[in-house]
Amino acid sequence: MGRPTEVRVRVPASSANLGPGFDSLGLALGLYDDVEVCATAEPGVHVEVEGEGAAQVPCDETHLVVRAMRTAWALFGDEPAGLRMRCRNAIPHSRGLGSSAAAAVAGAVAACVLSGRDPKLEQEALLQVTAGMEGHADNAAASLLGGFVVAWEQVGNTSARFHAVRLDVHAGIAPVALVAGVESSTKTTRGLLPELVPLPDAAFTGSRTALSVLAFTQRPELLMAATEDRLHQGYRRPAYPGSADLVDALRAHGVPAAISGAGPTVLALTTDGTVPGDVDTTGFTALPLPVDTLGAQVEIG
After folding, report:
1. Handedness of CA 226, 231, 232, 238 (dihedral sign)
2. What are φ and ψ of residue 279, in 5° steps?
3. Nearest in space to 32 (alpha carbons), one of 292, 299, 300
4. What gap in Å lies between CA 20 and CA 34, rounded to an integer?
5. Prior bond to 264 cis, omega within 30?
6. Of 48, 75, 230, 289, which is most buried by a Cβ count within 10 Å?
7. Separation of alpha carbons 213 and 76, rounded Å
């Protein structure tokens, strides 16, 4: 493909971990950030942001999308002299719905297109860029590829590479994101995790992670067991007690539920896009969201 000067990228939100799959399982959700980028001959970066995070994110070269573009251009080459960018954000920030991964994917995909490359043919390279910025591949892979992803990191003698496999989600699963009204820091919640966990807990969580692959793709009736976790959610409970209580309440009512990513959003895996009316969701906004099946999408010109 030639080298266009304008590109629009739409990137879905994502929910990671999904209970036991810490840093390894992700699900793309139908809530989107839209980024428009124009390459210019005049040096400089001009950024406009609308929607979620507009008052908090920088509007200069330190914007995450711009940083992802430059990281990608270090690989692809052909960086333009200047940029004009407009972001329309619908993914809440610092809520556990993969906003930073979506921004990284948007930037890397835009840079790929503006370098004259086809992002569908560069998915492996794009995953290295975006997962490398995140430090893990679950959110980035889901936003890039869509659907349900199993992600892992392979460490070699001198470097590490990220990998992911995309799978189709069973049609009987209707996610509901219960978005908390407060923010949470991934750095803070990771700091609550112990260096060592008991062997029975590790074995338990490993079995549930394996079961998740079957439950999400073929046997949704197994989701209640498949979303059980003993690896991270219990240790993080002090960071989001209200979210943990909501997970417990949903599960007590027969709804498979887990903390979404680093929280504090809760992901409920319903069959009909609703949560039981007698579950107290005060402080949370319920968003029925379809599973996104396409991942990052591009419109040129």
Report:
1. positive
2. -90, 125
3. 292
4. 30
5. yes
6. 289
7. 34
Quote the CA–CA distance of 234 and 192 in Å, as a whole number.
Answer: 10
DSSP for 33-73, please give it. EEEEEEEESS-EEEEEEEETTTTTS-SSTTSHHHHHHHHHH
Q: For the chain, list the strands marked E by DSSP.
A: 6-17, 21-40, 44-51, 82-89, 148-155, 160-167, 174-180, 257-259, 266-270, 284-288, 297-300
**285, β-bridge pairs:** 179
| Banded model confidence at residue 217, pLDDT cuts 50, 70, 90 | very high
What the block records as the tokens of 226 is 């498949």
The pair phi, psi for residue 82, each rounded to 5°, is: -145, 170
Residues 211-247 as b or e (16 or more Cβ within 10 Å = b): bbbebbeeebebbbebbbbbbbbeebbebbebbbebb
3-state secondary structure of 128: helix
Write the single-letter amino acid at 234.
Answer: G
DSSP secondary structure code for residue 170 in this structure: P
Residue 90 in 3-state DSSP?
coil
169 vs 167: CA distance, rounded Å: 6
Query: How many C-beta atoms lie closer than 10 Å to residue 133's C-beta?
Result: 20
The alpha carbon of 95 is separated from its chain's Cα centroid by a whole number of angstroms, namely 11
H/E segment holding residue 211: helix 199-217
Residue 80 has φ and ψ, to the nearest 5°, of -75, 165
Q: What is the pLDDT of residues 239-290, one digit of tens each?
A: 999 999 999 999 999 999 999 999 999 999 999 999 999 999 999 999 999 9
106 by Cβ neighbours in 10 Å (0-12 / 13-18 / 19+) ranks as buried
Give the dihedral sign, CA 188/105/8/97.
negative
pLDDT tens per residue across span 129-146: 999 999 999 999 999 999
Give CA angle at 147 (87, 94), nearest 5°: 45
